[in-house]
């Protein structure tokens, strides 16, 4: 695996790793790692650094929903213009073009179910190209970005007996 990919894999798993630690882990010079990270940031390969938070642990009452969106693509730009417009709504956490019956998957957050409902009915569905939506509420998160959310640290390996 090339060095760039190795650095990206490490940072994806733990954004707190510094160049010195990464260099030690990969047995390369720290200045090489620093330069490669800077270059990847400049080229927008690395877009930012995230923290995965288990909001349930602090009693957060935020509602998250995945909205599948069916839409009419626009001539010469396809889905891009409308997807970019949806991205600008502050409730929207992510937007992906997907295959299947629907065209976009939109992840949104709100304080209540009514907030999500209002977003879908007053903001999203009113856009000209939107043909239909399906809203799926996230009930519980088990794993996100490689991190397990359960509290049970028991060893889950299967026992192998001769």
Silhouette: extended
Provide the domain count. 2
Counted beta strands: 6
Number of helices: 5
| Secondary-structure element order, N to C | HHHEHEEHEEE
Gyration radius, to the nearest Å? Answer: 21 Å
- CATH architecture annotation name of the largest domain: 2-Layer Sandwich
Q: Taking all residues together, what is the mean pLDDT?
A: 91
Q: Tell me the strand order in the biggest sheet.
A: 2-3-1-4
Give the CATH topology of the largest domain.
Answer: Alpha-Beta Plaits
The CATH C-level name of the largest domain is Alpha Beta
The helix content is 25-40%
Return the structural class. Answer: alpha+beta
Q: Per DSSP, what share of the residues sits in E-state strands of 2 or more residues?
A: 15-25%
Tell me the CATH superfamily of the largest domain: Lrp/AsnC effector binding domain/regulation of amino acid metabolism (RAM) domain
Question: Residue ranges: pLDDT <50 for 5 or more in a row?
Answer: none
Q: Please give the largest β-sheet.
A: 4 strands, antiparallel
| Termini separation | 36 Å
